[in-house]
Amino acid sequence: MANIGRASAFIAAGTLVSRLTGLVRTMVLVTAIGVFAVGDAFNTANGLPNAIYALVSAGLLTAIVVPQVVRAARNADGGSAFISKLFTIGVVGLFAITVLAMVAVPWLVELYSPQFSAPQKALAVALGYWCVPQLFFYGVFALIGETLNARNVFGPYAWAPVVNNIVSTAGFALIIWLYGGNLTVIEDWTPDRIALLGGSATLGIAVQFFVLMLFWKRATLRVRPDFQWRGVGLGEIVKMAGWTFLMVMVGTIGGVVQSQVVSDASGEYPAGLVMSNAWLVYMVPYSVIVLSIGTPFFTRMSEFGSAGKTHELRETIDTSIRTLGFFIVIATAVLAAGAVPASRIFTNSGDEAILSAPVLLAYLVNLIPVAILFVIQRMFYILGDTRTPFFFTLLQGVLIVASAYLAAAFLPLSMLAAGVALGQSVATIVQLIVATVLLHRRFGSLNAGSWLRGYARFAIAGVVAGVAGWGVWQLLGGSSSWLLDGKITAMLGLGIIGIVAGVVYIGVLTIVRAPELSVATDQIKRFRRRSAE
Predict the structure, then answer these.
(1) What pLDDT is attached to residue 386?
(2) Cα 401–chain centre separation
């Protein structure tokens, strides 16, 4: 637990800085291009490499690399031969897919945003040619980063994205300096401006990869190109990867349908870029809490699973879920109470923030369930089972698609993005319930009674804290508050709401004598010590 605590603290520090600089990046981007027609065109173009990367490698890396590298470490060479072959396949495959994606940019834009006007599609295509090369750098960055995680080297993978945010923010700021802000007229986007916008985004991803490469020596692995892809157990990976590929394909199809549905609102109401920015705010607590705490737990669970230590593995499941819950519940309460000022951070006016806040609230519905799902889904990967996750992800995908079309049929355009986001949240909750039942049948007891009691305590404290935070928001003026005058004042207001809600949350848990309080306190102390170092 001490090692996990130190690793979590280091990852949390890096992730927090990364997410904060990411918010600054988004604020500068929104100032430069707005959140409607031009913003949605950039969102589509910049989202293409992310979507394709998720399809071809993200699920594969998460499901397979960490458990397999942990197992390969038991080999006489420490896993060097296995990693060499894996890296060679990955780099060759990523390069080929990136080239194909570059050729397919016009068709991909049409697929994701069929409701765009002709000028908006043309802008998205032009930006897409600049953004799609990110796919290659995303892939090799994740391949190296997940391998470092599997070797218990957690920090560089969490901190490297800070460089990406700094580089891309500088590029977006240069656009504002050269051409002025709020460039929302599509016709004003000349080739030089397009190159600067798309090139800045891609340069940041490339620099991020090269920074991570500086830390590769810490993995203590000797890696070289190796095209002899037989005899090191890669067949098992191919078998597992088939189900993982199908699983991510389901998620991609759901994302395409969502993008198509909300593109109908683009230009006048919250649509693609607002959803992406709301997701970015949502991802701050997810990344800082779930990924920073869950990642070292996942490596430890993989080690226990590889060694056949079932009792220790079961205890770690319980501990990880309760530890995540302690932090994620208060984060949900704070963002729910401060949804409007949080939305003001990535919009250009108070009216836009009020219009966008329902999207963030809709996403927040699944923030707590997705933290539990993080552990449950990775348990299947540890057990070498990628088939079962495909089926409960397929269920989620069907619900996401159905809910998106229902939102399009019954909701006004002003609420379309929020309806689509809420449908995704409900689908994730159903996915969690089904996944937990299936894992219990496969693995046996999950100590669910222990962590469910913990979450009941967290929920009580979270509701009280959320109400207190909302009361602060109302006392500060609510929708007519000075907090909505600018992005900085909105961040200040969100901080005030967070402090009050956090104090109330800790107070309630102290009153009910929550045993998780001491564990969480130790995590915070380690985080502060690590940050000070």
Answers:
(1) 80
(2) 20
* Most confidently modeled range among 434-438, 513-517, 528-532: 434-438
Task: Report the C-alpha gap between 472 and 279 in whole angstroms.
Answer: 24
Distance between CA atoms of 527 and 532, rounded to whole angstroms? 9
Are 496 and 469 in contact by the 8 Å Cβ rule? The answer is no
10-46 burial, b for 16+ CB within 10 Å, e for fewer?
bbbbbbbbbbebbbbbbbbbbbbbbbbbbbbbbbbbb
Query: CB 349: neighbour CB atoms within 10 A?
Result: 13
pLDDT at 391: 93
Tokens representing 152 are 């218990």
Integer Cα distance of 347 and 342 in angstroms = 9
Does the pLDDT at position 500 exceed 90? yes
- The two tokens of residue 164 are 């990406």
pLDDT, residue 35, reads 64
Under 8 Å between Cβ of 455 and 483? no
The set of residues, in sequence order, having a beta carbon less than 8 Å from that of 276 and lying 6+ positions away, is 43, 47
Q: Which among 21-30, 59-68, 148-157 has the top mean pLDDT?
A: 21-30
Q: Is the pTM of this model over 0.85?
A: no
CA-closest candidate to residue 291, choices 371, 227, 209, 360: 371
Rounded to 5 degrees, what angle do the CA atoms 231, 237, 241 make? Answer: 150
Total residue count of the chain as it appears in this document: 533
Res. 325 pLDDT band, cuts 50 70 90: very high
Q: Give the pLDDT confidence of 331-364 residue by residue, as tens digits.
A: 999 999 999 999 888 777 888 888 889 999 999 9
Average pLDDT for 22-45? 84
Residue 272 backbone phi and psi in degrees, to 5: -60, -50
Contacts of 96 (CB under 8 A, 6+ apart): none
Residue 235 pLDDT = 63
Residue in this structure with the two tokens 């909505």, named with its chain if needed? 484
CA dihedral (28, 33, 34, 37) positive or negative: negative
**Tokens linked to 446:** 């999950």
First and final C-alpha spacing in the chain: 20
Identity (one letter) of the amino acid at 248?
V
Chain centroid to CA 41 = 21
Alpha-carbon span 284 to 493, nearest angstrom: 17
**430/369 Cα distance (integer angstroms):** 9
| DSSP calls for 471-489 | HHHHHTTGGG-GGGGSHHH
With a CB cutoff of 8 Å and minimum separation 6, the contacts of 362 are: 418, 419, 421, 422, 424, 425
